[in-house]
Design brief:
Elements lengths: L7 H13 L2 H8 L3 H15 L4 E4 L2 E4 L1 H24 L10 E6 L1 H18 L4 E6 L5 H6 L5 E4 L8 E8 L1 E6 L11 H6 L1 E5 L9 H7 L6 E6 L5 H6 L4 E5 H6 L4 E4 L8 E7 L7 H16 L1
Parallel strand pairs: 3-4, 3-5, 8-9, 8-10
Antiparallel strand pairs: 1-2, 5-12, 6-12, 7-10, 7-11
């Protein structure tokens, strides 16, 4: 391999080809013509002294060599991109950068509106992508620069940089006009009610609240298990079920539900901001981190 024959554009083309496994799709991603991308592919064969992709039907399948170099190539291009970004001044008022934030649907629900309002005021040409949170994929997304930030609870990534985001408590929610009335909850009344439980792992009927009740020799009847906090307000508003909901989300849905303090010390959870160390010195990323932390602290 003769590096004198290469250029950064050729390596970027290789990254796109390995990602898309298609000349047409790679050309579209880079905004060039298909013949131009085909010429880049031919140059890559010369540069690496062997084909890196081979035809398989209508796809281009990476060879073993290509699969081996793909992660290193992606990391090198990310470092090069960062080098360029850090050497340039960042101006929020003129940037057209797209920021990508991984978080649970609860965090997106709490964060989205105030964050977009703040971005519109300070960086009117910027864009924000809110990406779903998968605990198995979040750190790889940060490593590969598919995401700028992850907002997560209990995410154990020892290499991650982090800062506190928010601390959340819970409210008991019920529909407006619930037959039990609007008096404060007692432990006995809470235990006697029919409940909906949010099981983020899916399908569970026992949670932290049940452990709290068990310590007082009580138990509750959970008649419905939900996979997301966002589903609870509509379900509760249309039934006599009650549920525990994060306080900020309960407040967002105050028009359709009543909310009360639980009859025991509320469980809490924290949401942290996490990012890859590679982005620590990126001025645009530092601006994003400060803005998200500011929005979360005031929500």
């Amino acid at each position: 391999m003769d590096l004198k024959q290469s250029d950064v554009g050729l390596l970027i083309a290789l990254d796109a080809l390995l990602e898309q496994e298609s000349v047409t799709m790679a050309a579209r991603d880079l905004g060039v013509s298909q013949p131009a991308m085909s010429a880049q592919l031919a140059r890559l064969w010369v540069l690496f002294i062997e084909p890196l992709l081979t035809a398989s039907g209508r796809k281009l399948v990476p060879t073993a060599r290509a699969s081996q170099i793909k992660p290193s190539l992606r990391a090198l291009l990310a470092d090069l991109d960062l080098l360029v970004r850090e050497s340039a001044q960042f101006d929020a008022a003129t940037t057209d950068r797209a920021f990508r934030i991984v978080a649970t649907d609860y965090v997106h629900a709490v964060l989205a509106a105030p964050l977009l309002k703040s971005v519109a005021l300070r960086a009117p040409n910027a864009r924000v992508a809110l990406l779903p949170f998968d605990p198995q994929k979040a750190w790889p997304q940060l490593e590969s620069d598919e995401a700028d930030l992850a907002l997560a609870t209990g995410m154990n990534s020892p290499d991650a940089r982090r800062r506190p985001g928010l601390t959340e408590t819970f409210k008991v929610i019920q529909r407006k006009g619930h037959p039990r009335g609007t008096e404060d909850w007692t432990l006995d009344a809470f235990s006697a009610a029919d409940h909906a439980l949010i099981s983020t792992e899916g399908g569970g009927f026992f949670g932290a609240t049940d452990e709290i009740l068990a310590a007082t020799n009580r138990e509750r009847r959970v008649v419905c298990s939900l996979p997301s906090f966002l589903l609870a307000p509509a379900l509760v508003a249309g039934s006599d079920l009650v549920a525990l909901l994060p306080a900020r989300l309960a407040e967002l849905n105050r028009h359709m539900i009543d909310q009360f303090d639980p009859p025991f010390p509320s469980p809490t959870f924290k949401v942290d901001l996490l990012w890859h160390p590679r982005r620590q010195g990126d001025p645009a990323h530092a601006w994003l981190r400060s803005l998200v932390a500011e929005v979360l602290s005031s929500s």
